[in-house]
Design goal:
Rossmann fold; 21 strands; eight-stranded mixed β-sheet; 400 residues; alpha/beta; 2 domains; 13 helices; binds ligand PMT; elongated
Length: 400
Amino acid sequence: MTLQGKRILICISGGIAAYKINLLIRDLIKKGAEVQVLMTPSAENFVSKLTLSTLSKNPVFLDFYSENGTWNNHVEFALWADLILFAPCTANTLAKMVHGICDNLVIATYMSAKCPVFIAPAMDLDMYQHPSTKQNLELAEDFGHFIIPAESGELASGLFGQGRMAEPDTISEKIEEFFHSNSNKSLMGKTVLITAGPTYEAIDPVRFIGNHSSGKMGFSIAEEAAKRGAKVILISGPSSQKTADPNIEIHRISSAREMFDEVFKHYQNADIAIASAAVADYAPKEVAKEKIKKSEDSLTIELVKNPDILKTMGERKSKQFLVGFALETQNEEENAKGKLEKKNLDMIVLNSLRDEGAGFKIDTNKIKIFTKTRLKEFQLKSKNEVAKDILNFIEAQILK
Ligand code: PMT
């Protein structure tokens, strides 16, 4: 009974895949969930209210008012649910969701909801590939919703391609996985401060000194910490990474100086601080007011040292469990241990650019973790998995 007591609100819109929802409901009920079904008016053409209500053991609603004149309160449905699933989600319903076109019970309920939203789109292949659908799915992801992508195969039109709603088993597994990973609230009540991404040090209004950090490592740690219930303060340099997790408070800065100032607005309240940003060690002494013109054969820019944010965190440490990163290209272990000592850290995560699949930009990393007394080496993994390893290690240390 992996879904025991979980309240799942299923919103069905008008697509042929609606017939598969009967199987999904039966499966969710078997796993212990309570299920409530709402439909758009056109969904009724594809699946019977009687079957759905018999399987879900609840009346099915598709209008704001019932025939006996009672109001079907969309706010109550929204507050009741632990999770809302849109399946099948047609192009029309998806568009209404992300643009707030609130002309039926399903959308009014969605717009009143605070719980996680899952979307299993289903439509013909060209509709699925249409720029408007792609953009609407991206918007839904930006809102923090979970997309269960359509599968490929034969479609109702007789065409072959991507557009079939994911199978009921797949949808059910995704929902189980979600509740399972969210039950591990091991960082509940903790504040985690994370730095991520590169810094840009301005030379003139056009140019800067930067580095190759994408922010992926830091954002993965932030997402994982938030999943574990932490309040996350993420201070990121220029990065295209995004997060819609409501437990992540994101502050975007540009230079090392700005990162320094932002970090120390929050550091005192942090229980754990993790510095994964690639901070420039030097910045131009002067920033030219106008674009520097090409004139001489060579140009000298005088650089001055930036503040060492992590070292200062080490000096100002009170209750914080302080974690640094070391990005090395030679004498890796020796340099990492040196930084652990000099910056007064509790732990350092070493990644080496000599390891294939490790470091900047890519989705994988290979790390070694050092404390003053321990060394643990990990295999090459996705940055999301690396984030789990790092947080597991931190938790084991702080719970000792
Ligand atoms: O963002 P991605 O593309 O996913 O790449 C991830 C990463 C390679 C950037 C990341 O895994 C990583 O290694 N981050 C640290 C990069 C770095 O600057 O390492 P460092 O050895 O130069 O610095 C040591 C530590 O001091 C780091 O925790 C750094 O954040 C911190 N530091 C450095 C200089 C400075 N002025 N202030 C600092 O806080």
